[in-house]
Here is the input.
Amino acid sequence: MALCQALVDARKSAGLGQDDLADRLKCHQSLVARIESGQRRVDVVELVVLARAIGFDPSEVLAIVEAATEPDHRI
Here is the structure.
């Protein structure tokens, strides 16, 4: 959930709504909503694409996720 919240925060900080981000990604707003709610996982390549579309450094988001992940978290 840390990734989801970080993506929402980044999008809002950029002044974008879900529709705006969907337009930039050339996808439906419902996909953005599913990603942000955690209903759909994001792979590394998609994180880079999201970072470019929103305008953030993906390594900063990874640091947030790393800090929020328990050391014994299972896959």
